[in-house]
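Weekly puzzle thread! Below is a chain. First person to post its structure in token form gets bragging rights.
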Amino acid sequence: MCIILLARHAHPDYPLILAANRDEAYSRPAAPAAFWSDHPHIYGGRDLDKGGTWLALARSGRIAAVTNYRDGQPKEAAARSRGVLVSDFLTNGSAALPYLEQIKRQGDQYNDFILVAGDLHNLYWLSNRGPGVEVIPPGVHGLSNHLLNTPWPKIRRSKLAVEALLGAQETELAAGLFGLLADRSVAPDEDLPQTGIALQRERELSAIFISSERYGTRASTVVLVHANGDVLFTERSFGAGGTPLGEVSRRFRLDTLGVPDEAKNLSHRDHRGHRENS
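Winning reply:
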């Protein structure tokens, strides 16, 4: 997953809006979004190589997504899959804060990551290259392969585009978000971050939608959670060169909108194509 955009309590009807692109090698097998047969309360895609996921939502309202942190350094082949960070959170029943604190202590078991986890009321992010568990406050936020709201060109551009859509209703909102996720424009060289990789690779990865020889955007996902608990979860899949492979779109209702018993936020701590309906 190479870009995750979030709008929290920024739209009059949708307390949570998420738009994301998953970027991965074209050869890595994955299943499109669906309710999981072994955990039928969870909806999302699945990595068929390691068994985790890049993004999923549970009927309880718990949501999580993960991306990698890019610094050009060699990766540890024996590290645990980052996708398990998402699936474990959604399946183990732990509240977000204790789960993230546990992962913080175990961060060296994974290659560099940025993890978003929580629910409609309490959403957090954690990176094993960052300061620790942090609240994601109301507003529009973005992350790519660095810390939350790092002002890379595609994050700056994407956040402005999301903000411009915050008055739109469902059809226009979803279409606008998918249009944003399909943007293949490359940033000017002078604006590129320096993440320890070759210049041509930095250019390729500066696009919101990536299409290179062996690696690129495999899935674009828009999740709209209405204040009444209705969810629209739409995922578009792509193959080599950005070839469209299909779309799945599902409507379902969350089981609860109640505030969990976990801490309301961290302020009390000294811590700075087919359609289905159900």
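Puzzle host: Confirmed. Bonus trivia for everyone else. The CA atoms of residues 2 and 92 lie 25 Å apart.
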